[in-house]
Amino acid sequence: MQGEGVGTTITQHILSQQRKNPKATGAFTTLLNELVVAAKVISREANKAGLVDILGATGKINVQDEQVQKLDMFANQVIIQRMQHIGQLWCMGSEEDPDLIEIPPQYPKGDYILLFDPLDGSSNIDVNVSIGTIFGIYKRRTDSREAEILLSDVLQPGIKQMAAGYFIYGSSTIMVYTTGNETGVHGFTLFPSVGEFLLSHEDIRIPERGKIYSVNEGNYQYWDEKTRALVDYFKTRDKETGRPYTSRYVGSLVADFHRNLLKGGIFMYPADKKDPKKPSGKLRLMVEANPLAMVVKEAGGYASNGHGPILEIDPGTLHQRVPLYIGSKKDVDLAEAVISGKKKLD
Ligand code: P6P
């Protein structure tokens, strides 16, 4: 699928995926393509962040009890404003908004639900570390006769996602997405000179075992014994299992995840006792864990909350947090066996 020597654009690729699905109506293609436009706008601002007054905090605190950065707000608004008029969405949910985002009455509605973290890793904006947008797309469960937007329509297990992916705004802007059903995971790099995302990482497969572990060890004292034993395991010398693993932790989920997706390894954000309001750790099920869990599963990896698959969790609330162990299947299987108590590390 080459076009005029520039390679395969994301639009061509999404269309080719649509053709593989006999039931596809093109609504889905419209949705993904508009999300790409929003990401291009965010990328432009993220790359300017060091130059213009888009840095710093707004002085607001979001539903996550976190400082809202100016670029957070900008990214959130760009996605909402671009996506609300395309006529494909039933509603949206954002990490930045406490409640569901309704489609204004002047715009037609569709059957898809978009859940997203508009700018993950925003605490890194001011220090020029990669940040990103994470998204998951579901089909509404209620039929068109149901006029009311019901939270029960949105709180679906991650296995129901129609598509998921992320954008990384770093040294280059990259989009990684999957439409599931063994169609693979594909990465695209934004070429500003062309103004297009071009296929750069076709059919990404994560190594079944890695050599990298990613975790904030500053939380060690807040972890339970099993979590400490697991992290100590990755640090302990053992020739046969290629340990100690290398420690890599950027503090920006999309950056840590993307590196491990390409090179292999395990990212962990365990439950901890650091904040009584967040006993399950910091990361959100619906807008962070589920989308990345779909991507990693399609790439041959696995994502667990330490007791079972992230993708099979029945959500209780829109902003529910979960412990997250995600990456190379053998590493995450081990983490789940240790955290759930099935395996004891000596
Ligand atoms: P900590 C960024 O704020 C974020 O939500 C993720 O991108 C990242 O993985 C995590 O928090 C880092 O959290 O507690 O290690 O600083």
Tag the structure with descriptive keywords.
346 residues; D-Maltodextrin-Binding Protein, domain 2; eight-stranded mixed beta sheet; five-stranded mixed beta sheet; binds 6-O-phosphono-alpha-D-fructofuranose
How does this structure look, described?
With 346 residues, the protein is of the alpha+beta class. The protein has two domains: 10-201, Fructose-1,6-Bisphosphatase, Chain A, domain 1; 212-339, D-Maltodextrin-Binding Protein, domain 2, CATH 3.40.190.80. The chain has eight helices and 15 strands. The chain has helices at 10-20, 27-48, 70-83, 151-154, 225-235, 253-263, 285-298, 329-339; strands at 57-61, 67-69, 89-94, 101-102, 112-120, 131-139, 163-169, 173-178, 186-191, 196-201, 212-214, 246-247, 266-269, 302-304, 324-327. The strands form three sheets. An eight-stranded mixed sheet has the order 4-3-5-6-7-8-9-10, with helices on both faces. A hairpin with a 5-residue loop joins strand 1 (57-61) and strand 2. Helix 1 (10-20) runs antiparallel to helix 2 and helix 2 packs antiparallel against helix 3 (70-83). The protein starts with 9 loop residues before the first helix and ends in a 7-residue tail after the last helix. The mean pLDDT is 91. 6-O-phosphono-alpha-D-fructofuranose binds next to loops.
